[in-house]
């Protein structure tokens, strides 16, 4: 009998802050600049230079903390994390070890089993490293533009049990960072990326397994695929008697596999000690209260409002607020319609699928979508036609009214038109009729399918079903 396994996952999320200058110097923060044009002796780490902490970084870290239900550390410090790697000229990174700015927070997500609380261990500030560029002819080059860009690292508890929970958490966390305007959180530019710590244990076991850390994942799809592959790899290794080692692994998105990079360090290997060049971080109550007072409306606040005011389910409301752009879009649309539920179904079921990125980039205006929903509400069109119309609206930028007229997609709501058509289909569907009359409810759907096919999806489904049931019961 094969054993049942449980996946245990914790996340370390790195968020680049959208400050104008770097964390310890006045160099401009600018993605995509010419290599080594936004750096200075301080962020490169030349001997004799002294860092000065950017106050805005602390403010943004506090905003992130209070938005994720964290406690704020009133008196903290910064530490040197010692390791050698070519993209860090100093051979250490200025980070925080024992006294992070934020600690003890949580986020609630909608999981497959309902709402679940994910613990947040800490949020600390640190500097980003430079970037290695691998060229087949020139070898490995170093671009220090990113070195010294301010980061917050958000460390979760090992509370995840599936890649779906991970995705729900990351979507919510990313949205919060955008809502509070501390980061653009562009995953394709690396300003929102995460490391996945994953281990396997038998169900019912309390002790953690041997974990692998998968580094620098920067898209939801790659994160989901990396977790799925790594879970299977570890289970296969355990069942074949292999001894797992604590290690750091990379992810190859083309091959869709993880691969070993090096054995994983423990915290003691970094030899943390307080940075002697930086003063303690002292945060007073007035600063915290001011930040809390000026926070914008957060996703959970909108979610509750959509549930209470518009009667949306927790799942639908969570999906809509998962992007600030989609929530703002819904907010504009909902003022134009009578049924928020129909709008939510169209938005989640159809509109989300048209977006080509995580940025909710669609071509249909809220006014045009509102018009389409009103046509659904008054029976001008049905759901089948709505799907065709939405696709054409996005491709052609025409309105729903124009497409309905052009493609003849108006719903057939006339009993006089539908009844003779249904009579003809019944006479051609004797086997399905007999099955339905013998108690097989599914047979009715096959007949309705023929009606919809005959009318190219334009027949009123409810009216068609009513007429069909009346005739089959006689």
UniProtKB/TrEMBL annotation:
It catalyses: L-glutamyl-tRNA(Gln) + L-glutamine + ATP + H2O = L-glutaminyl-tRNA(Gln) + L-glutamate + ADP + phosphate + H(+); L-aspartyl-tRNA(Asn) + L-glutamine + ATP + H2O = L-asparaginyl-tRNA(Asn) + L-glutamate + ADP + phosphate + 2 H(+). Residues 328-472 form the Asn/Gln amidotransferase domain. Keywords: ATP-binding, Ligase, Nucleotide-binding, Protein biosynthesis, Transferase. It comes from the Bacteria. Pfam families: GatB_N, GatB_Yqey. The keyword Nucleotide-binding applies. Heterotrimer of A, B and C subunits. HAMAP family: GatB. Belongs to the GatB/GatE family. GatB subfamily. This is Aspartyl/glutamyl-tRNA(Asn/Gln) amidotransferase subunit B. It comes from Tissierella creatinophila DSM 6911. The gene is gatB_1.
């Amino acid at each position: 009998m094969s054993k049942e396994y449980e996946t245990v996952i914790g996340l370390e999320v790195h968020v680049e802050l959208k400050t104008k200058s770097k964390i310890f110097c006045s160099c401009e923060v600018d993605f995509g600049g010419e290599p080594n044009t936004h750096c200075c002796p301080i962020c490169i780490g030349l001997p004799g230079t002294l860092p000065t902490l950017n106050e805005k970084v602390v403010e943004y870290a506090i905003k992130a903390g209070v938005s994720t239900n964290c406690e704020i550390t009133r008196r903290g410090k910064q530490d040197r994390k010692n390791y050698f790697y070519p993209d860090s000229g100093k051979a250490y990174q200025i980070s925080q070890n024992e006294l992070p700015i934020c600690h003890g927070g949580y986020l609630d997500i909608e999981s497959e089993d309902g709402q679940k609380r994910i613990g947040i261990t800490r949020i600390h500030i640190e500097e980003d490293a430079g970037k290695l560029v691998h060229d087949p002819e020139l070898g490995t080059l170093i671009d220090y533009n990113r070195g010294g860009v301010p980061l917050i690292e958000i460390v979760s508890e090992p509370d995840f049990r599936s890649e779906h929970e991970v995705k729900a958490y990351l979507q919510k966390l990313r949205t919060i960072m955008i809502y509070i305007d501390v980061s653009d959180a562009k995953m394709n530019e690396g300003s929102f990326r995460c490391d996945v710590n994953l281990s396997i244990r038998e169900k019912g076991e309390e002790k953690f397994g041997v974990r692998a850390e998968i580094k620098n994942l920067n898209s939801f799809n790659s994160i989901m695929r990396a977790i799925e592959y790594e879970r299977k790899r570890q289970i296969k290794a355990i069942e074949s008697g292999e001894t797992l080692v604590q290690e750091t692994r990379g992810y190859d998105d083309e091959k869709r596999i993880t691969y070993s990079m090096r054995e994983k360090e423990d915290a003691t290997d970094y030899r943390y000690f307080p940075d002697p060049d930086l003063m303690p971080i002292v945060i007073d109550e007035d600063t915290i209260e001011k930040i809390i007072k000026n926070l914008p409306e957060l996703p959970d606040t909108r979610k509750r409002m959509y549930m209470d005011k518009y009667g949306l389910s927790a799942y639908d409301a969570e999906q809509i607020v998962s992007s600030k752009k989609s929530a703002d879009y819904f907010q504009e649309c909902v003022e134009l319609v009578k049924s928020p539920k129909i709008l939510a179904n169209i938005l989640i079921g159809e509109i989300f699928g048209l977006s080509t990125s995580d940025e909710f980039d669609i071509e249909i205006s809220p006014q045009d979508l509102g018009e389409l929903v009103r046509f659904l509400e008054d029976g001008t069109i049905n759901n089948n036609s709505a799907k065709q119309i939405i696709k054409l609206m996005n491709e052609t930028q025409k309105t729903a009214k124009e497409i309905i007229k052009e493609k003849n997609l108006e719903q057939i709501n006339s009993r006089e038109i539908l009844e003779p058509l249904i009579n003809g289909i019944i006479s051609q569907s004797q086997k399905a009729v007999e099955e339905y009359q013998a108690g097989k409810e599914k047979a009715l759907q096959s007949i309705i399918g023929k009606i919809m096919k005959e009318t190219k999806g334009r027949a009123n489904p409810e009216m068609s079903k009513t007429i069909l049931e009346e005739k089959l019961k006689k």
